[in-house]
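Schema walk-through. Below, the input block comes first and the output block second. Nothing else is stored per chain. Lengths vary across the set, and this one has 378 residues.
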Amino acid sequence: MFTRRDWMKVAAAAPALSAFPFSLTPAVAAPSADDLKGVVDKAVAFLKAAQKDDGNFASIPRAGEPGLTALIAAALVRNGVPGDNAVVTKALKYLESKVQKDGGVYNQGLSNYMTSLAIVAFKETNTGGKYDKIIETAAKYVKGLQFDEGLTKDDPKYGGAGYDKPNAKARPDLSNTQFMIDALLAAGVTKDDPVIKKALVFVSRSQNLKSEFNEQPFAGKASDDDKGGFVYNLFDQDDPKSTKRTADGGLRSEGGMTYAGLKSFLYAGVSKDDPRVKAAIAWCRKHYTVTENPGQKDAGLFYYYHTFAKAMDALGEDMFADAKDVKHDWRQELFDELKGRQGKDGSWTNKNGAFLENLPELATAFALLALSYTKKKA
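--- output ---
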């Protein structure tokens, strides 16, 4: 077996060989197709057994539906499960049954979250344009949920999205806003669309970075540890009882939200040279991990895995260097971590019940979505 030193000797002895595509750089060791298939197949078996007769997956009546089914359908197709697979087909029929007259795809409440997830699921399975009309009307519905009507650009709510239609008591958050951005871009809305531009105003205000894009008080109080990261709810700065606040009124950055913010910037075409993107990447390098959700430990862990995977994929660095310049094959590390956490029945679950991740169907959906981004790039 040739070592690196052997290759260097060959190169020195035969300069003409330099025209050939030899590389002394270690290959990226992303999981093999067989390894990935083995993990996915176990998950599919679990989900097939968990699926109800009408196609939904909620183990608790109406819990997270139809969003949960949308997450699972998209995750399965992204992992190579055919669109005509029985589990996927039943899931999509269920989603179709939840399309409302206003174009939204929801059951009771959480209409932005539900519809945004449904758009992505329909897009992933839109063979032959079968769901074009549903996607078009759903995108129009989601656009109407943005906080912008009657607001000036200086209003902290401007451009964001919450769980449902805006009203005087409601407030937007970064999680719902990033789902909205994902869905609209998947639906074919351009990066220059006013809705996307307005959404980026809110995303910028959710970052622990004082800049021309963010004059919120909490951003100017960010510690070195929090700087560049993102927060779920910037309005926590106005709540003295919030556990997210620091002693001086700042807000703590969170892993899942930081990757969601970074991903939103990259998806919407913000340059990697933009100071907001640079600051977010610097935070990610400082807090790189696949064993916990930085800032929240095991709370929202599987949500973290899916935003981490999407953002890293969008960033495009096969080997991601942390703040100590240690290079990480993030695809392989994420795969290994998720494989190690998979249960014998093929599911994933979080012992921490925050955000309902103790429901194996939800944790499994997020885990599968994350896994779909660990495939080797062609």
